[in-house]
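URGENT: need a sanity check before tomorrow's submission.

F., can you look over the GntR family transcriptional regulator record below? I want to be sure the sequence and structure line up before it goes out.
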Amino acid sequence: MDIIISNSSGKPIYEQIASQIKSLIISGRLKEGESLPSIRLLAKELRISVITTKRAYEDLERDGFIETVPGKGSFVAPKNVEFVREEHMRQVESALFEAIRWAKTGGITAGELKELIDILFDHEA
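Structure tokens as predicted:
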């Protein structure tokens, strides 16, 4: 599992881990029932505290992305279609807020931005 930690990111490390694992699950690169590295192994691979990886896994479990079985490990939880759709909506909303900020900074109008979204939506995969 490829997780990249950025020390210059404004996000805490546990959030970076959780968000990247969520993305892997949502994209289907991590499949339902697939096991995740143990908390200790992931901490060792990333050269971070076990407490940090534990926090990321706890957040993922709380949000319904993984299930932890004592003595066996953590596994990708069965997908709840509505929950996955809601997570996609949150990610799109976040990206759109960033796009709006860039548009305003660059003097691009709401109409121009909407037109650009329509063009990209129809032509991009």
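My own read: Residues 81-105 form the longest helix (25 residues). The domain at 13-76 is CATH 1.10.10.10 (Arc Repressor Mutant, subunit A). If you see anything odd, call me.
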